[in-house]
Specification:
Blueprint: H1 66-79, H2 138-152, H3 155-163, E1 167-180, E2 195-197, E3 202-205, H4 210-228, E4 238-250, H5 253-256, H6 261-270, E5 275-281, E6 287-302, E7 309-319, E8 328-329, E9 331-332, E10 335-336, E11 340-349, E12 353-362, E13 365-374, H7 376-387, H8 395-413
Length: about 425
């Protein structure tokens, strides 16, 4: 793994922008890729094309279905009678209960066990000719691969999570817009529906208007009330309102020396100056967190039929173990970084998802943000169960739920 590829910079914040009229014209080129830069087709039409992934290519281990593993088990059992082939078996182990976890440096709490819910099976006309029970969603599969490749199969990341209990993994999704850096216009082109983008020359701005903020607040509050109704059979949605202040300090050499070796390597190879973010409860004045946030990898999803695009981010929140008094205030140029006041409303359910609706005030500017966090402990537990060969796990359903929440809230906010 090339750790230097793990870090990326977030885009600056600005007011939301709508797509221009008729943004999806098939003749319109994406602002991030000019027509002049498009490759010229080869003259030799008989030249071999790049090999595409074939149907028989091996799939990632987490994507193997239970019935497929069972069929493989029976097939391997039959092959044991054939001396020309080496037998292989798929182990079947019992699922383990979910242990309690701690997040953001808080004391561990007893988490209610989340029941394993079976997804709706495809029947009748929805079932394909291959007789598959479930057909995966391509966008969700990309997010599954992102987490699997950059966290589950990354030994340095797993090592620091094992050895440093105060370092936490963050899997978050932000609502915003993918903008072309030159024109500052929302990305558009030939695509009319949701897709993962892999384009250079773009930036992501996570912001929303005051009107959208109020509308989302009203919508989420209504959902909390609905979940409390005995007539509605749905999980409870818990609500929390906090007021916090963030202050930023430069990470000095003395503080750097206190960090885990893997964290030091990530910081050194990133080439960026890191800051310590100290969060204080505005009511009590008590420090609640002292963290260094390291951005590992992002994946951006364009959603042209809604007002917002999405950025899936994987980060490390590293607890700063040293005293704050020894640190120097962070600066941008000759000026100090202004403190950031956060008025945040958090909505959580299933012990897996948390939506944060935040009004951020910094100096004379005010911004509104919407974020969705996925509990990383549940994701890692599900991934570990896959590697142990257990049939029932929630790895893919957790990511599908993440994407479904992004889509539902985006459509709620988009004017028809």
């Amino acid at each position: 793994m090339n750790i230097s590829d793990l870090l990326s910079n977030p885009g600056p914040e600005a007011t939301p922008r709508r797509s221009p009229s008729n943004p999806h014209s098939i003749t319109a080129a994406s602002p991030a890729i000019s027509v002049a830069k498009l490759p010229t087709p080869p003259h030799n039409t008989h030249k071999a094309m790049p090999r595409r992934r074939q149907r028989h290519d091996p799939r990632p281990i987490w994507a193997v279905r239970e019935h497929e593993a069972l069929e493989a088990h029976h097939r391997d059992h039959r092959n044991q009678r054939r001396p020309s082939r080496a037998p292989s078996a798929t182990p079947r182990l019992q699922a383990q209960p979910l242990p309690s976890a701690q997040h953001n440096g808080n004391a561990p709490q007893q988490r209610p066990r989340v029941p394993v819910l079976d997804r709706r099976q495809l029947t009748s006309f929805e079932r394909p000719l291959t007789n598959d029970n479930v057909v995966y969603d391509e966008t969700s599969r990309q997010v599954c691969d992102l987490i699997w490749d950059n966290v589950v199969m990354s030994e340095p990341i797993r090592q620091v999570l094992r050895e440093d209990p105060h370092t936490h993994l963050e899997i978050e999704a932000r609502w915003g817009q993918i903008l072309d850096k030159q024109s500052n216009v929302r990305l558009h082109g030939i695509h009319r529906t949701e897709c993962v983008v892999q384009v250079e020359g773009t930036k992501f701005e996570s912001t929303m208007s005051l009107e959208q903020h109020k509308k989302m607040n009203q919508f989420l509050n209504k959902e909390v009330t609905k979940a409390l109704s005995p007539e509605v059979q749905r999980p409870e949605i818990t609500y929390r309102h906090t007021h916090e202040v963030d202050t930023f300090y430069e990470l000095d050499q003395a503080g750097f020396a206190l960090l885990h070796p893997v964290i030091k390597a990530i910081i050194q190879r990133s080439g960026h100056t890191q800051r310590v973010r100290v969060t204080t409860d505005q009511k009590t004045g008590q420090i609640t967190r002292k963290i260094i946030k390291l951005k590992l990898v992002n994946l951006e999803i364009s959603s042209p039929r809604t007002e917002w695009d999405y950025r899936i981010g994987i980060n490390l929140e590293v607890n700063f173990p040293g005293p704050v008094e020894s640190l120097q205030p962070a600066k941008e140029g000759m000026r100090g970084v202004e403190e950031r006041r956060k008025d945040r409303m958090s909505y959580s359910w299933l012990g897996a998802y948390t939506v944060d609706l935040t009004q951020v005030t910094q100096s004379t500017s005010r911004n509104h943000e919407l974020e969705l966090e996925l509990d990383p402990d549940l994701v890692l537990q599900a991934a570990d169960s896959i590697q142990r060969g257990e049939d029932n796990n929630n790895y893919e359903p957790l990511i599908v739920g993440l994407m479904n929440n992004l889509r539902v809230l985006s459509r709620e906010m988009t004017k028809v």
